[in-house]
Specification:
- With about 120 residues, this protein is mainly alpha-helical.
- Helices cover about 80% and strands about 0% of the residues.
- The protein has six helices and no strands.
- α1 runs antiparallel to α2 and α2 runs antiparallel to α4.
- The longest helix has 22 residues.
């Protein structure tokens, strides 16, 4: 979705901004409402799990939710900068978000999850 936004926001601005706004909404829902009821979690639960079987244990949802919050902040800022005609910042924030998402998708390395763990370690008990 973010690559499509980067490719079409200059050519078809209303469509690009609409797609970016929909991604902001997905990140917001996952970060603030429910990780397990997000669009991607539901697709995974209904399509992938029946084929590979449910896992024996699930991971803590707090680090991925924090990562979704980071995605929400970055895409919301990108949307705001596009609306305010600060094109360079809009492209940069969208590309940064895409890079973080692609890194997670390709390697399994979630920088938002690692940032959450670092923040938890720094916080006094």
């Amino acid at each position: 979705m973010l690559v499509v936004v980067l490719l079409i926001v200059d050519v078809a601005r209303p469509v690009g901004l609409g797609l970016l706004a929909s991604q902001v909404a997905v990140f917001a829902f996952t970060a603030f409402v429910s990780f397990q009821w997000s669009v991607w979690a539901q697709i995974f639960a209904r399509v992938i799990w029946p084929r590979i079987g449910a896992p024996a244990a699930l991971e803590d949802a707090r680090p991925p939710r924090f990562a979704q919050f980071v995605g929400f902040v970055l895409t919301a800022a990108a949307l705001a900068t596009f609306v305010l005609d600060v094109e360079v910042a809009g492209y940069g924030l969208t590309a940064l978000t895409f890079a973080l998402v692609a890194l997670n998708a390709c390697t399994g390395l979630c920088l938002g999850c690692h940032a959450y763990q670092l923040i938890r370690r720094l916080k006094p008990a």
